[in-house]
């Protein structure tokens, strides 16, 4: 298995991925706080962390906060593997549904989520910055 649970020792690597993947990346402080409150799983190629997923759990629901794969490792199924793994963990934790938001322009991510049984619930206007953009709200039953 190339997916492993990450801990705070991976903070710098996660931050580097975050900065390479997003126009408006989370700060190191936000990521550090997320290690305390959520679960990070990483996809490794050899010993290189090339992608991660962050999940928060509240009662019987999972919230996928971030999914990121380094540009040079995209189109290899790593994002799909991370989403499937997160949903497996959510099921083990007896979650009944998962939620996420995705940029309206990120068609590749929307397609990935729909492939994993996510459906569109609605739009959150001007949710993202840099550039300002709507969020597509999605969920799936687990």
> Which ranges are low-confidence, i.e. pLDDT below 50, for 5 or more consecutive residues?
none
**Approximately what portion of the residues adopt beta-strand conformation?**
35-45%
Count of domain modules: 1
Named CATH topology: Aminopeptidase
Please give the order of strands in the largest beta sheet.
1-2-3-4-5-7-6
The name of the CATH architecture is 3-Layer(aba) Sandwich
Class per helix and strand makeup: alpha+beta
Mean pLDDT: 96
CATH superfamily: Gcn5-related N-acetyltransferase (GNAT)
Which bin fits the share of residues in helices? Answer: 25-40%
Q: Would you count the extended β strands for me?
A: 7
Label the overall shape. Answer: globular
| Biggest beta-sheet profile | 7 strands, mixed
Please describe what this structure looks like.
The protein has helices spanning 11-21, 28-37, 78-92, 107-115, and strands at 3-5, 39-45, 48-58, 61-69, 97-103, 119-128, 133-141. With 142 residues, the protein is of the alpha+beta class. The chain has a single domain, classed as Gcn5-related N-acetyltransferase (GNAT) (Aminopeptidase, 3-Layer(aba) Sandwich). Helix 1 (11-21) crosses helix 2 (28-37).
Topology:
Blueprint: E1 3-5, H1 11-21, H2 28-37, E2 39-45, E3 48-58, E4 61-69, H3 78-92, E5 97-103, H4 107-115, E6 119-128, E7 133-141
Parallel strand pairs: 4-5
Antiparallel strand pairs: 1-2, 2-3, 3-4, 5-7, 6-7
Helix pairs in contact: 1-2
